[in-house]
Amino acid sequence: MKIVFIGSGNVATHLSTALKSSGHTVAQVYSRTLAHARELAGKMGTVAIDDLQQIDRLADLYIFSVKDDALSGLIARMPETEGLWVHTSGALSMELFAARRRAYGIFYPLQTFSKQREVDFREIPLFIEGSSYDVTDRLSQLGREISDRIYCLPEEKRRYLHVAAVFACNFVNHLYTLASDILEKADIPFEVLQPLIAETAAKVMEMSPWKAQTGPAVRCDEKVMRKHIEWLNDPLMKNIYSLLSENIRRHSERQQR
Amino acid sequence: MKIVFIGSGNVATHLSTALKSSGHTVAQVYSRTLAHARELAGKMGTVAIDDLQQIDRLADLYIFSVKDDALSGLIARMPETEGLWVHTSGALSMELFAARRRAYGIFYPLQTFSKQREVDFREIPLFIEGSSYDVTDRLSQLGREISDRIYCLPEEKRRYLHVAAVFACNFVNHLYTLASDILEKADIPFEVLQPLIAETAAKVMEMSPWKAQTGPAVRCDEKVMRKHIEWLNDPLMKNIYSLLSENIRRHSERQQR
Q1: pLDDT mean across residues, chain B
Q2: What are the chain A neighbours of B7 within 8 Å (beta carbons)?
Q3: Distance from CA of B240 to the nearest CA of A (A)
């Protein structure tokens, strides 16, 4: 397939690398910032553009991989082309394409991508949706070339997936940040927490998270929790502590019923 | 060393296994529930007791590894013995021993232990505190036999460590649970989140967590956040979503200054 990337961020970088490795051709990389387009186009051995009018009209697939709030504007300004248009956003509907296209879809890899970290794309769950049976089928075939975990998921389910990912990734990472802040105040290096973080994640590869729950809140150890809240200086951190502890307690009561 | 374990839970199980592997003798395991004491004593090839009066008076080391709220009661009822008394709690002071003993300390392994999961004890950070220079030294020596990561940490710092661990482990695991709940409602298997969870944890082995932050809150993507909150049914989950997102935003503004 001849593929054009609209966007050159983390998702575009990892997805284009995987598709190129599977023998597909990345024909162009567009970004409104030419330097960004060039960075990815250089890796792909292809052309960087920052003007939508220069888009190759004859590609098989156009992958829109841009910030969510930029997507509908880009779709509106995109010139007419051949081929299939898809986007990689978990939160947005494929119907954003409906006013412009007959054949469109979603190609959403569920992972937290950073340019500086390599990932094994075959392990990444890839969620597909197509405007027709035929489109879904073509996207699934393409997906299977780069990942072993292809799921066809309609929008009304994908939205829950996306919220769940915010909890399991973005919010989890923020708790790592808060833990790091707390340690910093006591001059303790963050590395002391790394084995704990690794094991906490490793556990839920084997058991359900509610079975893996440990700590003062699930033990209803009020004394320790009161001390912890007292030791936290920041009011927002105190709030987060109370709210999550309360929710853990409530959850564990529900499980015991 | 001849060691007696007061308690037979997850920490006692993993710690006694590591100490026995290093050539020490576990002389007895006490639990108020004899079946629990027997389970661990069986693994150690040693004696199980459920009566503190049967405690061997001539051990070198007594390791109290029980629930935080049970500790002071046990210390009060413990008979006079030879040797050193220590506990394994991150949240409690070693001064709980002061009324009973001259030589005492802390031997706190920072990890989330489950009986059914093996862990490499050499990787586990072990935090030591002693009632005297000599005690600290003896505990550090013992610690180095089972772990490569020994830290001497006074109580006023250990408490921050303990709160940080609650954020990085217990609260993180609860977010996994909430993510799992959200997926369950959409009939999506939890396993689709596992690569994301593994990568989120793996990232902070290499970069600081605030640099690893991704997602709608750090991008200030208000549209997506409003939708997410709308899609969550549970008021407590809505609260958690808002509070963590607000804190991520606040944190990222602080970093940019």
Answers
A1: 95
A2: none
A3: 7
